[in-house]
Structures are given as C-alpha cells and as structure tokens.
Amino acid sequence: MTECIVVKLGGIAGKNLPHHFFQKIRYWKSQGKQVIVVHGGGNAVSRMMKKLNVQVQIVDGLRVTSKEVLAITKMVLIGHVQPDITNQFLEQGLAAVGLNAADQHCLIGDYVNKPVLGNVGSVSKVNVPFFENLLKEDIIPIVAPLALTEFNQWLNVNADDTACKIAESFKAESLYLMTDVPGIKVDGSWVSQLSLEEAAELKKHGVLTGGMIPKVEHAVCAVQKGVSHVHITDGLHEMGTIISRAEVRV
C-alpha cells in the first residue's frame, strides 16, 4: 500500500477549511499518498451542552462523559460536525465518507477511568483492512473520535488519541495535529523541530502547558510506535513544530 498521511482537525480548524488546505490534500493525492482525516468538535459539544443546561466537567483535559453527555457528543459529532467537514471535501471534488465506530467496528476502545470519567475511552484497535478498502477506492475517510468497546458500548475519545492510534496502525509517513497555534513555543520563539528526547525535556521542565501537554504526549507515542514524524501546526501549508526521532537542537 502507498504511504499514508493522517490529519487531525480541531473543532475550530474544521469549520471553514481554507483553499490551501485542499491544495495540500490534492498535492498529496497527486503524489500517490493516501489520506485519513480525524475531526474533533469539543467546542461544539460544549456549546450544545450549555444550551441543554448540562454541566461541562473537564478532568485532566478529558470531558467527563455521563450517558447524557455521550448522547449529546454523538449527536454533535456525527450529526453536525462530521457532515459539515465531509461536505466541504465533496464540494472540492474529493471523494470522502464520514465514519464512526459503528461502521464495521472501525475503532475499538477501552475505558480510561470509568469511575472518574464515565464513558471516556482510548483507542485500542483499528480495523485497518476496512480503512484500506476505502483508501484503495481513492476515498478519504473522515473519522469521528468515538470508539466501541468489544461489548458495543460507545466511548468518547480524545481526537488526538484517535488520530495517533490510526497513524500508528498504518505506520504513517506523517501525522498532522492541527490546532489553533503555529506549533510549540520555547523562550518566546516557535520551535521548528524537536527530537523525542527534547520533547520529554520540555514536559519535564514545565515548558508545555494546558492542552499542549497531552498533544505532545500523543505525538511522542506515535513516533515511538512507527510514525515517521508528527507536525503540530495551525495549517497544512505550514510545517509547524515537527516531532521525530531525529537528533536536532531546540
């Protein structure tokens, strides 16, 4: 199979995808690359919860997901966010299909900490043959960050975790974790490259804060498990901060 590139879109990033985003996708396709897209949608879920007077609780960057919150999350991700993103691809003439965990059990997961977080999970298995069949038909999968347990119980999964696990399963050439900043900032400057060791040092010394901590942790794990390099960036036209095994200096 040809080289695979995985792109994770944050909720904001996926709302109105710019022209240069699709230019990059087309360029990759012209080079024979296969593309898988994972979308987030946490902000949209939070807005819907507030409209429905459901309390938003975040623990260690993960949304506490009761049965009610899980139903809202599925409704927003599968019913609103994913169709919007998929339609943008179709309008650009790119064959794409929206997927969730119920499609051929494409993502299997386990609970992270059920007593504390409820129905929050982490991806434990990816149905690679299912994705490969779509990619062979030149279709771009647009994947919701949800998983099913082996007993068909739904799980709310962090989108970075979902994208990294898919990238690991394909030993992806590149993984793009798109966010709202150009990359990782150290001493007031954006860093272009980090080795695994340097990324660990930044975490150890408290340079990483907030949502960047789990994002970098997922990126490091992906590289350790076979992904060539991970970009943390705010656009596909920018390299952002590249995390790889290479020995580079900050």
Automatic annotation (TrEMBL):
Keywords: Amino-acid biosynthesis, Arginine biosynthesis, ATP-binding, Cytoplasm, Kinase, Nucleotide-binding, Transferase. One of its GO terms (biological process) is L-arginine biosynthetic process via ornithine. The record marks 8, 215 as: Transition state stabilizer. It holds the Pfam family AA_kinase. The keyword Protein transport does not apply. Its EC number is 2.7.2.8. SUPFAM superfamilies: Carbamate kinase-like. It is found in: Cytoplasm. The keyword Nucleotidyltransferase does not apply. GO terms for cellular component: cytoplasm. Belongs to the acetylglutamate kinase family. ArgB subfamily. This is Acetylglutamate kinase. The gene is argB.
